[in-house]
Amino acid sequence: MAVITLKDLFIVPTEHQREPADVFAPLATASDVQLLLEESAEQLDRAERLRIDATLTALLANLLSALPGDRRVELTLPSSPSLQVQLARTPLLAVLAMRTELVEVHPALRRWAEFWDPHDAAQRARILAAPDTQDPVQRHLMTLVDPHRRASTDLQRDVRGIVDPWLGRLFVARGRSADRSRAMRDLETAMSELVENVGDHAHVDRTGREARSVAQLMTTSGGGDRSHDRFRLIVMDNGIGLPKSIKARRADLNGESAVRFAFEGRLSYGDRGRGLTHVGRVISGNPGSSFTMYTELFPERNRSLRVSIGSNGRADVQEVALAVVGTLAVGKLNLPALARQDPTLFEAPDDELALLGA
Prior knowledge:
This protein is an alpha+beta fold and 358 residues long. The chain has 2 domains: 1-112, no CATH class; 114-353, Histidine kinase-like ATPase, C-terminal domain (Heat Shock Protein 90, 2-Layer Sandwich), CATH 3.30.565. 34% of the residues lie in helices and 20% in strands. The chain has helices at residues 20-24, 41-45, 54-65, 81-88, 92-98, 121-127, 136-139, 152-170, 177-201, 204-207, 242-247, 255-264, 274-284; strands at 2-5, 32-36, 72-76, 141-145, 171-173, 213-219, 230-237, 290-298, 303-309, 315-320, 327-334, 338-340. Strands 4-6-7-11-8-9-10 form a 7-stranded antiparallel β-sheet, with helices on both faces. The chain has a 3-stranded parallel β-sheet with strand order 1-2-3, with no helix packed on it. The chain has a two-stranded antiparallel sheet with strand order 5-12. A hairpin with a 5-residue loop joins strand 9 and strand 10. Mean pLDDT is 78; it is low at 222-228 and 348-358.
């Protein structure tokens, strides 16, 4: 039995941090999984000050996305609205909503089970509704379930036709309109490039797995005057991973070199990997931004690659002891040129934020 508790997912001081491999290693062999995410009495008293590590929780979602169908997952969710919303800002709930054979569908999961289809008029209307008519979670969070089902050209059109209007309803320029245009273009570039990669890599015919993917774009809320400047983008799939995809064309490269070449724009065939170069430029062009990617290397050996990009735009590639499935990317973008149209839209009372029973 593998047991994951809420405490395992919290942000903790550096000196108390655990490696993801230590937290999630039991998932690889356990017959059943307990996700005991309900707070203790002490945690409930401090819930407003506790912060869930989005990258760590996204890693958990990635591993659950490929869990064999004969496993069983027992799920309890926190009662604190603050912690519920923090979980919703990761792919965890969307992945659990897709894996109905693993976990009984909880009322809080039903809202995350809808496949991404911007041609569905009702879905498009909900996404682009006036912010003050949307529920407080969805005002500043867009979740795309299984975007790989759509062709790459359609995904590019989706970003332009959905993401841009969604952002435009929430943000105006702080200062010059040209700066706003550049910030919006950077967001569109980062999201379209990463979501398009999902379309390239999440294919059941190459893995034997049922293909699954999730993409999320989130704006932060609360936390000071500049909190509106920050955005988080999470994209994950359970496909073949970046190294294998590149090595199919460049057999001369090992996994680490293949990924490094992709981020450095040194691949010469077609456009493959070029989008990751664009992502690096977006990160380096916006101080305070960062990007982390985990991608499958040798899952049978419990090995993956972790790519980190900071303000210098250079990719630091390291092999880590973690059986990541496919690819997981987490980008944090700091865009001071954007300001909220109405800051009160991000300050909903806690009793309006509950996910349970929604």
